[in-house]
Automatic annotation (TrEMBL):
Identification of the protein by name: NAD(P)-binding protein
Species assigned in the record: Pestalotiopsis fici (strain W106-1 / CGMCC3.15140)
Domain of life of the source: Eukaryota
GO molecular function: oxidoreductase activity
Family stated for the protein in its record: Belongs to the short-chain dehydrogenases/reductases (SDR) family.
Keywords: NADP, Oxidoreductase
Classification lineage: Eukaryota, Fungi, Dikarya, Ascomycota, Pezizomycotina
NADP recorded as keyword: yes
Length: 305
């Protein structure tokens, strides 16, 4: 990938940015790199104030000129009440939003349900971000209609969409722990849903650029829970990881590119891999399932509007 955040991200003066999951991994790296280019403000979300403020302090050590321009926003994507409160808090503070990077997520989680009763990876990786995108859509659309605006929404998906169960997304079972499929399949269906949502939004809000990104297999904290539950895997993952995993700095380049590259260089509603080539797969073009997911999601989120 011929993209350097230091030199290829343009001046971001005046832009308001939200990065979810900004306290660690790809999110934290994204905040750090975006902060170097003088945005008006970046909202860094995390589940706890302690994690968020620690991350901000560490980012400011690397980018001291960003002092006062990075703000903490409490957000737990596994709770739709938390998502609503975070969106309302943001909307009370800002009259515009230029870049929303839906970065946060879970991987390899044990079977379980969110507080709202959804399969935990589907609820946290898909439904939470879907609501967090839906609630500020009016201000995103308003910003997109301002002179010289360029509004982007970046959704982190994954090449593991290929591991989704047969049929793509088991909507009738998403309010169960989905014990009949593997953790990887549960993750895969949540990431396929992220892409479908990206494409559906691009068709309905054409003044905004929506892009899905697979960052590569990145050495972040997503596998920490798996290591804790199966300690024997810890050493193996560590050894193999050093050989095949992408480091966080390189892993974040895809989402930074999608957030900032010239609009003519990017396709609205597309899904790019870590080498910035567009994915082509028959399951990605299933318009029937895409519409079914959209309608189901709209119904599920109706009471949170």
């Amino acid at each position: 990938m011929n993209f350097s955040p230091d030199t290829d991200i343009p001046d971001l003066s005046g832009k308001v940015i939200i990065v979810t999951g900004g306290s660690s991994g790809l999110g934290k790296e994204s905040v750090l790199q975006l902060a170097k280019h003088d945005p008006a403000v970046i909202y860094l979300t995390a589940r706890t104030k302690a994690r968020g403020e620690t991350a901000i302090e560490e980012i400011l050590q690397a980018v001291p000129k960003a002092k006062g321009k990075i703000r903490f926003l409490e957000l737990d994507l596994g709770s739709l009440a938390s998502v609503k409160m975070a969106a309302e808090s943001f909307l009370e503070q800002s009259e515009r939003l230029d870049i929303l990077m839906n970065n946060a997520g879970l991987m390899a989680s044990p079977p379980g349900l969110t507080v709202d009763g959804y399969e935990v990876q589907f609820g946290s990786n898909y439904l939470g971000p879907a609501l967090f995108t839906k609630l500020p859509l009016p201000i995103l659309a308003k910003t997109a209609n301002l002179p010289e605006s360029d509004v982007r929404i970046i959704n982190l998906s994954s090449e593991l969409f290929k591991q989704a169960p047969k049929g793509g997304i088991l909507l009738s079972e998403c309010k169960t722990p989905l014990l009949n499929i593997s953790s990887v399949a549960r993750y895969g269906q949540s990431k396929l849903a992220d892409y479908y949502h990206t494409r559906s939004l691009s068709q309905r809000y054409q003044e905004i650029t929506f892009v899905a990104i697979h960052p590569g297999v990145v050495n972040t904290g997503l596998l920490d829970d798996l290591k804790k539950r199966r300690p024997w895997l810890g050493g193996l993952i560590g050894v193999v990881g050093r050989l095949v995993l992408t480091d966080v700095h390189n892993g974040a380049r895809g989402q930074l590119w999608a957030s900032s590259t010239d609009r003519q260089s990017i396709k609205n509603g597309a899904f790019y891999g870590n080498k910035l080539r567009e994915y082509k797969d028959t399951v990605l073009d299933d318009e029937k399932l895409m519409r079914k997911l959209w309608d189901w999601t709209e119904e599920e989120l109706k009471r949170w509007e």
